[in-house]
From TrEMBL:
The keyword Secreted applies. It comes from Pleurotus ostreatus (Oyster mushroom). PANTHER family: PROTEASE S8 TRIPEPTIDYL PEPTIDASE I CLN2, TRIPEPTIDYL-PEPTIDASE 1. This is tripeptidyl-peptidase II. SUPFAM superfamilies: Protease propeptides/inhibitors, Subtilisin-like. Pfam families: Pro-kuma_activ. InterPro entries: Peptidase_S8/S53_dom_sf (IPR036852), S53_propep (IPR015366), Sedolisin_dom (IPR030400), Tripeptidyl-peptidase_I (IPR050819). Binds 1 Ca(2+) ion per subunit. The lineage of its organism: Eukaryota, Fungi, Dikarya, Basidiomycota, Agaricomycotina.
Length: 589
């Protein structure tokens, strides 16, 4: 009796202590939504044998070290300024701790998944992708996947409303996708709008490389062309002399294709000296390049980057196709995750563009917290390698729609935009007019995710003091504030399908202008034997960088308020202002 009781106790203890019985069954929720994300509806249960490309992002063991190094190489006062990290160095700092790898692989094996059969691994080993059936993913993540339908874009995706991980893995894994992030490139595509009632001016300002610099003519108030932008920003007459030393990358949309014939029409009409110049396309994850289906966004992005910076080479990255969705198919589902696909693709290249522009973005609160942090970390890795990464600050002022929070509390809050709110990218707001003023839709505000980085402490504290109680309670005073700078954002003349149209909405146009100017300053630096600018923010916020036209009028309304007013110095409507190339090249070239 006594002995058998002891034995039972011993057995019970053995069961409790057994790493396999307990380790992987002790789950804790990783992320969960209180409701289906806005714009999506449940459609059906996916076939259990449908394949998912499950991507696991492990914690980079030396991420803090990487951020420290990023700030050193980006701080103009630091001896290491401009000594960017190589792919190998970033990979080494991205690697997960061996304990993380051991734990994740043991967990995969427990579920019958062979980690050696990963279909993709990042250079640092921190991201691993496995092609597995939905039923296995559901067991691993203690979740139920559903097919969800986006009513506006008509996208279908396989996602979950919540997912869990063994408690032990929470300290090793940042993120598993696809799970609770419902974004797709099409669904989050910016609302670039064609101005149907605005005719592009017959007197559109055409570039004449032999003309002396002049003030922008009146036509630039109604029809913005590359020649206007060059006049606004004091670039007229400058031509890059080291084009082969750089490349500008444009991250493109799903099913948005640039059109080469339209680029030629644009150059013929507005920049005759650059006639014949073209760009390359890089296809990622089944991206396409359909020349019969020109997109407004893609054409605008390409035409204005080329318009500002030709003959510096330009690459358009076309990420991910959208195979027709067949509900009961077992084929691998389109698991494109807009940011993860292209950033991971680019990080895997040994040479990367010196300047990157991307036009998409969405409200922070629609993206799971861990996802925001993981993607922002990836941008840190990209900037550490010496790329300038530019994002539009958004098209909705301080927030579009009713601005209610989706945390179950339904409060009205300004809605910061991501990735603009990531402290490692440079966010670009919008202006308009011959005498530049804030354009009302210029996105701006304060992150609820990322704390204010030291580089903008002085500038932002100063603004908050001037602002006083305006908008108190509607935004987070401790968050990373944006935009960082701005540029013209409306009434751009773009050629689509051979025809000139007028396009507005901040995304892209302002970013492309700034991308061009950064590349031109890089060109001057290269001529002077210096490195490229890389991560701009620590530099442009530092004392003495006065190469911006301070925008002091207008505001960016939203959420039923007037938004933030532009003021002298940095403000969350137009940042530090618009770039003056002539001044910046003297200061930074
Ligand atoms: C405010 O921002 C900080 C980051 O600076 C964040 O940790 C905090 O959760 C935010 N507060 C709210 C209410 O979102
Ligand atoms: C830039 O152009 C403006 C006029 O558009 C002019 O007033 C200013 O002096 C120029 N800046 C430089 C540094 O040339």
């Amino acid at each position: 009796m006594y002995w058998s009781k002891l034995l039972v106790l011993a057995l019970a203890q053995f069961v409790l202590a057994s790493p396999h019985a307990r380790r992987w069954d002790d789950l804790a929720v990783k992320h969960s939504w209180t409701e289906i994300p806005e714009g999506w509806v449940y459609h059906s249960a996916p076939s259990p044998s449908r394949l998912l490309d499950l991507r696991i992002g492990m914690k980079s063991h030396k991420m803090d070290d990487l951020i420290t190094q990023l700030y050193e190489v980006s701080d103009p006062k630091h001896p290491k300024y401009g000594q960017y990290l190589s792919k190998e160095e970033v990979d080494a700092l991205s690697a997960p701790h061996p304990d993380s790898v051991e734990a994740v692989e043991a967990w995969l094996q427990h579920h019958g998944v062979n980690p050696d059969e990963a279909i993709d691994r990042s250079g640092g080993g921190d991201w691993i992708t496995l092609r597995i059936p939905v039923s296995v993913a559901e067991r691993m993540l203690d979740t139920k996947y559903g097919v969800y339908h986006h009513l506006k874009s008509e996208d279908y995706i396989v996602r979950a409303l919540s997912y869990s991980l063994p408690r032990e893995l929470h300290s090793h894994i940042n993120l598993v996708t696809p799970t609770t992030y419902f974004g797709t490139i099409r669904a989050m595509k910016s609302n670039s709008f064609v101005n149907p009632d605005i005719q592009v001016s017959k007197e559109a300002f055409v570039e004449d490389v032999n003309a002396p610099a002049a003030l922008p003519p009146a036509s630039c108030a109604t029809t913005v062309t590359p020649a206007c932008l060059k006049a606004f920003y004091n670039i007229t007459g400058f031509s890059p002399v080291n084009p082969a030393s750089q490349r500008i990358g444009i991250a493109g949309y799903l099913e948005e294709f640039g059109n080469r014939a339209d680029l030629q029409t644009f150059l013929n009409q507005l920049l005759p000296a650059s006639r014949g110049f073209t760009y390359t396309t890089t296809l990622i994850n089944g991206g396409e390049d359909d020349q019969n289906d020109p997109g407004v966004e893609a054409n605008l992005d390409i035409q204005y980057v080329v318009g500002m910076a030709a003959p510096i080479p330009v690459t358009y990255y076309s990420t991910g196709g959208r195979p027709p969705f067949i509900p009961d198919s077992t084929q691998s589902t389109n698991t494109n995750e807009p940011y993860l696909d292209w950033v991971n693709f680019v990080l895997a290249q040994s040479t990367i563009p010196t300047v990157f522009t991307t036009s998409y973005g969405e409200n922070e609160q629609t993206i799971p917290l861990d996802y925001r942090q993981s993607v922002c970390d990836l941008f840190a890795k990209l900037t550490a390698r010496g790329s300038t990464i530019l994002f539009s600050s958004g098209d909705s002022g301080v927030g579009g729609g009713d601005c209610r929070t989706n945390d179950g509390r339904n409060r009205v809050q300004f809605q910061p935009a991501f990735p603009a709110s990531c402290p490692f990218v440079t966010a670009v707001g919008g202006t308009t007019g011959l005498t530049e003023t804030t354009i009302g839709f210029s996105g701006g505000g304060f992150s609820n995710t990322f704390a204010r980085p030291a580089y903008q402490d002085t500038a932002v504290s100063r603004y908050l003091q001037i602002l006083g109680n305006t908008n108190a309670g509607l935004f987070n005073t401790t968050g990373r504030a944006y935009p960082d700078l701005s540029a013209q954002a409306n009434r751009f003349e773009v050629f689509v399908g051979g025809r000139a149209i007028s396009v507005g909405g901040t995304s892209a146009r302002n970013v492309q202008t700034v991308a061009g100017i950064v590349a031109l300053i890089n060109d001057v630096r290269i001529s002077n034997g210096k490195g490229v600018l890389g991560f701009l923010n620590p530099l442009i916020y530092s004392d003495g960088v006065t190469g911006f036209n301070d925008i002091v009028t207008g505001s960016n309304p939203g959420c039923g308020t007037n938004g933030f007013p532009a003021r002298a110095g940095w403000d969350p409507a137009t940042g530090l202002g618009t770039p003056d190339f002539a001044k910046l090249r003297l200061l930074l070239g």
